[in-house]
Amino acid sequence: MYQNLLHQTIIAAVLAGNEILEVYDTKFEVEYKDDKSPLTLADKKASEKIIECLKQFNIPVLSEEGIHEDFEKRKMWQKLWIVDPLDGTKEFVKRNGEFTVNIALVENNMPTLGVIYSPVFKDLYFSAKGIGCYKIDRTIFSELVNSIETSTIENLINVAKKLPIVSNTENYVVVASRSHMSTETHEHIEQLKLQHHQVDIVTTGSSIKMCWVAEGVADEYPRFGPTMEWDTAAGQAILQEANASLIDYETKQPMLYNRENLLNHWFIAKRN
Questions:
Q1: Residue 55 contacts by C-beta under 8 Å, 6 or more apart in sequence?
Q2: Nearest residue to 81 via CA among 248, 229, 264
Q3: Residue 130, CB half-sphere, CA atoms under 13 Å: how many?
Q4: pLDDT value of residue 179
Q5: Pairwise CA distance, residues 181 & 203, whole Å
Q6: In the chain, what are the helix, strand and coil shares in percent, each to the nearest 5?
Q7: In the chain, what are the domains?
Q8: How much is the pLDDT for 92?
Q9: pLDDT at 264
Q10: E strands within the chain?
Q11: pTM of the prediction?
Q12: Positive or negative CA dihedral for 19, 117, 137, 57?
């Protein structure tokens, strides 16, 4: 059921990544939205490319850079795409490569398919309900980028690693945000140090933090600060198919999507 959807979503993410890199290699200008978050031409071009690639499915799109329909209309949607065309714009502006394209399919408020792609590093994570969770790392995917539209989903799965990849780390590993480490997150990590013999902290930008938990590189990613639905939907889809979870800190249940308020509660992503 999900194979064609997943294949086209991967193509959309990679083509959006190509649009981002075209801007990344120029002296781009940075605008700032009302919430002070940065916006570039790359965000806009990537969003347009994703919407163009996915329009064949006639499923509505909720994109960070698109028009946000009123909840009275959105609540009727049983299916929707939730898209962050450039997650980690701060990292993009810093030119450290730690940004991603995030695309999720949400059905009845739960993500069922997710793709996260790193345009600079060429790491691709993808998952779908009933298909599983996979990663194609940069050593392989850098050879496939230019032929992505002719690669079949079967070929992509064949060269991918199924997640989680078992980790042999002795210490408890926490992945934290490169740009958004809050006081509450620090306090949570201090509590973890009391529970576990040794806690190692690793940092990166964007949704790769959730991917590292799914992969087994990290045991937990606590986020005690503001995020939006498009920041987490694709990551949660990937976590759920990799024996991990993303839990809403207030409800103590998996995060739900297409809510009236698109601002997420705090959450913890961790291995099950």
A1: none
A2: 229
A3: 5
A4: 64
A5: 10
A6: 35, 30, 40
A7: 3-162 (3.30.540.10), 172-271 (3.40.190.80)
A8: 87
A9: 98
A10: 31-32, 38-39, 61-63, 79-87, 100-107, 110-118, 123-128, 132-136, 161-162, 172-177, 199-204, 220-223, 244-248, 267-271
A11: 0.95
A12: negative
Is 237 strand, coil or helix? helix
Residue 142: both structure tokens together:
């850098």
Sequence letter at residue 240: Q
Mean pLDDT by 10 residues, the chain (272 residues): 96 97 88 77 93 97 91 97 94 91 98 98 97 97 95 97 86 83 87 92 92 96 95 98 98 98 97 94
**Bond prior to 85 in cis (omega within 30° of 0):** no
**Distance (Å) of CA 133 to CA 8, 70, 163, 167:** 16, 33, 5, 16
pLDDT for the residue 178: 65
Per DSSP bridges, beta strands 199-204 and 220-223 are unpaired
Q: Which amino acid is at 117?
A: Y
Give the pLDDT confidence score for residue 221 in this predicted structure: 97
- C-alpha 37: how far from its chain's center? 18
In the chain, the amino acid numbered 258 is: N
The Cα angle at residue 239 between residues 233 and 240, in degrees rounded to 5? 90
Token pair for residue 87?
A: 């997650």
Q: In this structure, which amino acid lies at residue 129?
A: K
Instruction: Please count the residues of the chain.
Output: 272
* Cα 220 from Cα 174, distance rounded (Å): 5
